[in-house]
Prior knowledge:
The chain has 42 helices and twelve strands. The N and C termini lie far apart (101 Å). It folds into six domains: 4-197, P-loop containing nucleotide triphosphate hydrolases (Rossmann fold, 3-Layer(aba) Sandwich), CATH 3.40.50.300; 203-281, no CATH class; 286-377, Arc Repressor Mutant, subunit A (Orthogonal Bundle); 379-481; 720-800, Tetratricopeptide repeat domain (Serine Threonine Protein Phosphatase 5, Tetratricopeptide repeat); 806-874, no CATH class. By secondary structure, it is of the alpha/beta class.
Amino acid sequence: MSGGIVIGSAIMGRDITVHLPRETPRAVAGLPGRVANFTGRDVQLGELLDLLRPEAAGRQGPAAALITGLAGVGKTELVLQAAAQATTVPGWFLGGVLFVDLFGYDRELRVPPERVLGSWLRALGVADADIPADPQARAGLYRSVLSACAEHGHRVLVVIDNASSADQVRPLLPSDECNAVLITSRHTLDVGARLYDLDVLAPQAAVTLIRGALQHARGPHDTRVDDEPGQAERIAEFCGHLPLALQICAALLADTPTRPLASLADSLADAHSRLDHLTREDRAVRAAFDLSHQHLERVSPSCARLFRLLPLNPGPDIATAAVARLSDADETTAEIMLQDLARAHLIEPAGTWGRWRLHDLLRLYADERGHACADADQSSAARARLLEYYTTTAASADTHLVEHPARPPSPHFRDRAQALSWLDAEHVNLILAAAFAPAQGHPDVTAVLATCLAEFCALRGHFDEMILLAGVALPVCRLAGDREGEGWAQYLLGMAVMLPGRPKEAIELFQKAAELFREAGAGQGEATALTALTTALTSAGRLRQAKKAYRRALAAYRKTGDRSAEGRAMSVDAVRLGMMGQDDKAMATLHRGLAICRETGDRLGEGRMLGLLGLVQGRMGQQRQGIESLEQAISVFRQIGDRRVEGEIQCDLGEALVRMGRFAPAVQALEEAAACFAETGWRSHERRLSAALGVALHGLGRYEQATDVLRQAIAADREHDDQGQAVLLDSLGAALLATQHYEEAAGHLRQSITISQDTGDRSLEAESLNRLGLALRMTGPEEDAAAAFHRAIAIFGELRDCERQAIVLTNLGSHLLASGRPEQAVLPLQQALSLCQDTGSIPVKSAATQLLKTARSQTPERPGEVDPGVGSIS
């Protein structure tokens, strides 16, 4: 017959003639219906179509694609859309399309491959009498027919939907490289196909799907999604952006055109009943998950049990090591089971290798099944093992963060960096475990984790989590009569408010913590709380009380014999001494503390001492030594992996370099500080950093960039009318001064002065007054400029800051000289030179000397002309 293909000696020596249809609309029409509102898969659809192109055949092996993903993610729809488009392109698939749904996960409906082969051979023109009964012979004939079709230009597209195993698929695969095959499965199957993992939709695409499905059902006049976009986003989020769930929600809304989206969103908000609401007629998310779970029960009961246990983990993801404890297996076995679950798309990798997560709806489903099988799965014992793993490992990690002679670093972790890495990865699980443990019958877990996580949360700036920990630990410890545990909870609350810059609120909390520790006889805790109290009192300006608290802390440390902590506490007293203007005593205290830290091998304490020493040396005019100390401190914190404190000291270094006029290395240090803060999420130094960076950029002549940095920082921080805002305003004033925007500079500097007066920051007030004087000398009135300089000189005198007092005296002398009053300029310039003898400030000394010569050379009757900018030091 014309158009026939002869398959030679295929079965029992007979030749079989297959008649090909001239056109293929019949085959295309055999595809199941497709949704009209297909969206969010343009990239994946394009990739599949590229694979199916005739010119792609044979270039990289068979044109075979396996699309995998969890139930309801839209695998079938993607394949149907690709098949429909591919078979309508002229010349691509003249042999048509063969489609089958294998129902691989439904035990009752599962289709064996030999039955599919019989149907497909008939569709390809093979007579019933020529179709062999033997499955292998049937598969051989099928491949021969497909190859012959391809040789004659009748390429066939094979679509195998919903396969559960490689054994279901392999007999249905073409053997040639011309025909093409698309396969969908919830499992990653080893069938030699290119793998495409399909994820849930992007949030906006999920909303678009709801809108499209709703308007397809009800018409374009249904504008509920556009009328309630926020509620549409809530529905999409509750659905986990899973297409099946989204289609069900759209259908439910279409059923009742008067129902607001908010009504459906509110009904989905209850996690316990969410799966009940995601049901309509023959479509249900739970039913789709049931098939996957039942299949898993048949092939691997141990994996099914693990799937049901995973929701016992309180956080969003879980590590392999934790899964091992949860399932009571070794890590190798746990990893094998996890990979099996991942191949079944019941879990997925969570960003980094070794961590795993459940889709939100699958988590709800697994939790449902877990409750139903709690006794058989021994869920209570599993939860206890997991919590025990978290508490003991957190305690081991904490030994690397807080050094104590009676508690050496745990060998569980190689070093501090590894301990921090584990805490970074697990801290959400740990916080949630502490929060939920009391209700689950494990209150001791809360108390232990609150203590173990205090230093880590402080280090990383997790202040909200510290408050949460303390909030759940306090009632637990009070109920148990655990005074020491209650003390640690109070201490945690104090740190949570002091570190973000609210020391006054922390004072009472630290006092209460010290009292609780003393009642419990916990000397180490009492000393720790008293040290924190000293810091809070110092920051609040209550320096006499701070001195008393420090002496009590020192006595407590000496009772415990913790020489390392005693040495480290000296850094706190050095800060107090510095605030009192006693930098010489502060330096001596820091040297004593540094010696103790080095003697005891306390690297953390050594780094803190060096950082503070660098600041004190800078204030005392020992700029070069100060830079060296700061660089040594940075090296220490980099070695021990403390990026937050490294960032703080990089910021100190940048500011010191700015003061020395070394702007290029200052920018480098400040940018490194910004990287540290971005990495750790620490934000308390952002304003300082922006201020210094703005000045440094200005010093490099990058004026616009400098003012942009400062303006953006001020705009982002307007809600905080505090000291940090004043620092930024002062720095912006300095940058504007240098670009001769004097009136604008004066406005910002006046704001800085007002805030500094309110907050009691005398040093910053004087800095801004000095700059205000420089601005006013250019805009007037002259007397206002002189008054600003005089006020700044008085404040720096009170603070015993000789270097900056000399700077302002020099500026005052320059102003008086430029105003035609050389006889009045002589005294402040002489005073500036006298102070320079003590500070050794060469730039100030040079400027004051030049100005003094000019003042003396002029007579009151005939003042010389003086450039108003000469000698000005901002």
